């Protein structure tokens, strides 16, 4: 079962620079474990073992463009032909101009 996983720039050091990799599994949890067998360390950047193997707070994961936090989280079912996108959450904004 081939599932495409799109990798953000910040995690491409784990995939040898690849923008997308393939993995297998019936849930996101299994998929991330499978990815870690070929791209050691990537799972730890996505999954927080200290929080009961839940997705890290500042990592957004999408299954076919749908946020998995509104599905079944890391236990979301995946299948052949699905596309997973991993995006680190970004914070920030414009600096406020202050007048003295």
TrEMBL record:
Name under which the protein is recorded: MoaD/ThiS family protein
Domain of life, per lineage: Bacteria
InterPro entries (UniProt xref): Beta-grasp_dom_sf (IPR012675), Mopterin_synth/thiamin_S_b (IPR016155), Sulfur_Carrier/Prot_Modifier (IPR052045), ThiS/MoaD-like (IPR003749)
Organism of this sequence: Streptomyces montanisoli
């Amino acid at each position: 079962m081939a599932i495409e996983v799109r990798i953000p720039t910040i995690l491409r050091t784990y995939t040898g620079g690849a923008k997308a990799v393939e993995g297998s599994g019936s849930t996101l949890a299994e998929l991330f474990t499978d990815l870690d067998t070929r791209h050691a360390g990537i799972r730890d950047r996505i999954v927080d073992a200290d929080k009961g193997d839940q997705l890290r707070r500042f990592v957004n994961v999408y299954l076919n463009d749908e946020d998995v936090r509104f599905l079944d989280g890391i236990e979301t079912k995946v299948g052949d032909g699905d596309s997973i996108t991993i995006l680190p959450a970004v914070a920030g904004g414009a600096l406020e101009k202050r007048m003295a």
